[in-house]
Structures are given as C-alpha cells and as structure tokens.
C-alpha cells in the first residue's frame, strides 16, 4: 500500500548536515545548520546548564510525572519575563498566556494552529500571514500546514545587502487589515539584517494603525547584541502600546539546548479574562498534537532563570558565544581582504547574529561544497557559529576561488 510513495527531498537546512556526515574528507566544514561550535569545532554544553543538570540530578524530590498540557508553570512565567521584561505591564495585568512548547518550531506551530482556528473571522485576511522575503526555510511550511495562507513582504535588498525598509513599509501598507505579520525579533535568519529601533517604531505604528497582528519569532535573544534585554526591545516596543501579539521563544541557541526542544509561545491579550480563555483553547491545540511537553529542558531553564547567580553566569557564557561569532566575522572579512577577493565584503562584519548572508549564488555554493568540502545552505547563508580560526583560511580560499573562478 505504500508502493506509490515518492522519495521526498532532504530538508534544505538539516539536509546539509546529512550530506556533510557522508563526506569522508578530513577538511570538511559544516556551516549549514545554525548551531554553535567552539574554537575546536565541538558542540558546546554551557557550564551553567551542566550545573543546573547536576542540581536536578541531586534533587531526591524530582519525579517524572506528566507535566500539565501547558508545561512547567514556573518555566512559563520566567520565559514571559525574559522576553517581555521583569516589569512588563502586560504580565503585571495578567494579560499574557504562556505555554511551554517544543522549541521555536513547536511554538510557531501551536501559535499558527490557534490562529487558524480562533483568529477572529471578520474577514478572510485573518488567515493570511505575511513573512519576510527571505526568511527561515521552515516558516512557510509551518504556517501552510497549520492552514494559514502565506504571503511575503519585501525585507532584504541584495543590492545593498541591507534592509529594504521602503519595500517593507510599502508591502505592509498594502497588506489587508487583520493580516498576521511574522517578525524576526532580532538576528534575522538568514540575512543577519535587523531594523534599527527607529525603524521598528515605524513598523509598529504602521502595523497598529492598520490592525496587522504581530507574530514574533525570537530564536536568538542574546545573540544579536550579546544582551538579552537589548535584543528583546523590538518585542517590548509592541507590548508597551497595549496591543495584542504572539511571541515564539526558543532556548536552542541562547542556552545551547538544541536537542532538548525547549521553547515557549506567549499570547499577549487585551484583558486577563481573554488570556484565560485563550489558554484554554491552546490546551485543545496541544493535547491532540503531543499531549504535553517534555520536563527536562524546561526544568534546566527554570533552574537557571530563577537563580540570580546562575542567570548571571548564563549571560556571561552567552556573551562569550556572541563575541566569538563577532570575532569570526572580523577574521573572515580580513582573510578576504588579504586575498584581494573581488567585491565588497563589509556586510560580513555588519550583519548580526549567527549567520552571514554572503551573496554567493547556488552555483558558487555547489562549487565550494564540491571542491572545498564546505557545507552551507544553497542560498549562500553561512553559519558563523560553525567557523573557527582554524577553518577561516579554508573558507576564505573557497570563497575567493568561487568568486574568481
Ligand atoms: C537554522 O536556521 O539553521 C536553525 O534554525 C536550525 C533549523 O532548525 O533550521
């Protein structure tokens, strides 16, 4: 009965790791998936995470019962404070409902399912979500499968390798009232290009005046500037005006909890009463999907966020990761200058977060993979977090050859 099933293509991002793993070359480098590596090219478990795990292990009262459908209550509370701020009026007024989900993707999916079912049916446009062009490859898939109609708004300008702010404003101005707009909270994936705070304020005013619903994807809090608070400013700007929004948080990158699949979806509502009803419906979305979320990762996060000293330790380790990535940017930029590689490569040091959107085309990427065993996504995105001082010269040689060849 399954004989007709066609072979599906590999995922454009996670499939890069599959190809990398098959390559026997000793010089291969995986710059595909956005996952942090040390200078030695090794995955990193943060010290503060190891300490939290030790505490959990030594706690004789720890049990393995099911969590509630909405997850670990303390984790949810602390996650909302992390993104919206300790003194967020929306939290104080109990207008926020937060549910623990399976990292960023799971949070986006639960949010999308909720919107598809419950976002007010004044017009058909409430089932349309505008996503930036380009965006993380999984976004359109998550929203489409949940039943939303996906449209795009201009975001990146290949000519300047910066933000197409005019295009963004035009497209959001033309979007029908009531549509949902997906916004990357910081460290835009894949371009590494973020609006300035002034530009965010423009976007906020435009969206609120048009009744567009913001859905923030916050996968890199702490990775853009090295400061958790600074990176949450765009989201907090929207919360401060009293309006509604959704926010999906991931702890994959900023706490290095990739495989623990720990994240949260928050919905900021107009009143406490609405928030209670929204949460009751989120439970109906989650229960048939995966029943309730896993306990371990959320317990690690709660252990760290609740303890001042551990929280401080986390911010230091987070800043060290962000700084190493910035140092990789400088080193790659200098290596290309030293080789006299044609073109302007200043975007490598200007872009923000884990990725550089190099501007290399699909053929150039294929060349670099074939000849230099460098693995990256075909859109020319490089995960700077996968680079080290040892591999920068090899990558610079590959880029030079791809550009001049
Ligand atoms: C990425 O963009 O590389 C990460 O967000 C990992 C993923 O799941 O795609």
UniProtKB/TrEMBL annotation:
<dbReference type="GO" id="GO:0030170">
    <property type="term" value="F:pyridoxal phosphate binding"/>
</dbReference>
<comment type="subunit">
    <text>Homodimer.</text>
</comment>
<dbReference type="InterPro" id="IPR004838">
    <property type="entry name" value="NHTrfase_class1_PyrdxlP-BS"/>
</dbReference>
<keyword id="KW-0032">Aminotransferase</keyword>
<dbReference type="InterPro" id="IPR015422">
    <property type="entry name" value="PyrdxlP-dep_Trfase_small"/>
</dbReference>
<comment type="similarity">
    <text>Belongs to the class-I pyridoxal-phosphate-dependent aminotransferase family.</text>
</comment>
<dbReference type="InterPro" id="IPR000796">
    <property type="entry name" value="Asp_trans"/>
</dbReference>
<dbReference type="GO" id="GO:0004069">
    <property type="term" value="F:L-aspartate:2-oxoglutarate aminotransferase activity"/>
</dbReference>
<dbReference type="GO" id="GO:0005739">
    <property type="term" value="C:mitochondrion"/>
</dbReference>
<protein>
    <recommendedName>
        <fullName>Aspartate aminotransferase</fullName>
        <ecNumber>2.6.1.1</ecNumber>
    </recommendedName>
</protein>
<dbReference type="GO" id="GO:0006520">
    <property type="term" value="P:amino acid metabolic process"/>
</dbReference>
<dbReference type="Pfam" id="PF00155">
    <property type="entry name" value="Aminotran_1_2"/>
</dbReference>
<dbReference type="InterPro" id="IPR004839">
    <property type="entry name" value="Aminotransferase_I/II_large"/>
</dbReference>
<feature type="domain" description="Aminotransferase class I/classII large">
    <location>
        <begin position="28"/>
        <end position="399"/>
    </location>
</feature>
<keyword id="KW-0808">Transferase</keyword>
<dbReference type="InterPro" id="IPR015421">
    <property type="entry name" value="PyrdxlP-dep_Trfase_major"/>
</dbReference>
<keyword id="KW-0663">Pyridoxal phosphate</keyword>
<dbReference type="InterPro" id="IPR015424">
    <property type="entry name" value="PyrdxlP-dep_Trfase"/>
</dbReference>
């Amino acid at each position: 009965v399954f004989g007709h099933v066609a072979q599906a293509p590999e995922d454009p991002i996670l499939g890069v790791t599959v190809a990398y793993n098959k390559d026997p070359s000793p010089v291969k480098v995986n710059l595909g998936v956005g996952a942090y590596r040390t200078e030695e090219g090794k995955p990193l478990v943060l010290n503060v995470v190891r300490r939290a795990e030790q505490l959990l292990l030594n706690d004789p009262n720890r049990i393995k019962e099911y969590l509630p459908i909405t997850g670990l209550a303390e984790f949810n509370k602390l996650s909302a404070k992390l993104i919206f701020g300790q003194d967020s009026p929306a939290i104080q007024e109990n207008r926020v409902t937060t549910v623990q989900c399976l990292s960023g993707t799971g949070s986006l999916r639960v949010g999308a399912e909720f919107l598809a079912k419950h976002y007010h049916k004044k017009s058909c446009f409430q089932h349309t979500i505008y996503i930036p062009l380009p965006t993380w490859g999984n976004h359109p898939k998550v929203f489409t499968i949940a039943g939303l109609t996906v449209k795009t708004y201009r975001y990146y300008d290949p000519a300047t390798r910066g933000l197409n702010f005019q295009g963004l404003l035009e497209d959001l101005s033309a979007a029908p009232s009531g549509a949902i707009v997906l916004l990357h909270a910081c460290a835009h994936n894949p371009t590494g290009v973020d609006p300035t705070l002034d530009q965010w304020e423009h976007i906020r005013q435009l969206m609120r005046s048009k009744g567009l619903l913001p859905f923030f994807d916050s996968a890199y809090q702490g990775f853009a500037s090295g400061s958790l608070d600074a990176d949450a400013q765009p989201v907090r700007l929207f919360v401060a005006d009293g309006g509604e929004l959704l926010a999906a948080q991931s702890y994959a990158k900023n706490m290095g909890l990739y495989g623990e699949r720990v994240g949260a979806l928050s919905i900021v509502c107009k009143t406490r009463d609405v928030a209670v009803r929204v949460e009751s419906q989120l439970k109906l979305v989650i229960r048939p999907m995966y029943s309730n979320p896993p306990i371990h990762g959320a317990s690690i996060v709660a252990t760290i966020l609740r303890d001042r000293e551990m929280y401080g330790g986390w911010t230091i380790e987070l800043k060290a990761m962000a700084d190493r990535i910035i140092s990789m940017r400088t080193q790659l930029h200098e290596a290309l200058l030293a080789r006299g590689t044609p073109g302007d490569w200043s975007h490598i040091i200007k872009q923000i977060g884990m990725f550089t959107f190099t501007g290399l085309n699909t053929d150039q990427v294929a060349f670099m993979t074939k000849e230099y065993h460098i693995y990256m996504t075909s859109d020319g995105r490089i995960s700077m977090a996968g680079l080290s001082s040892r591999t920068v010269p090899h990558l610079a040689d590959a880029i030079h050859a791809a550009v001049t060849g």
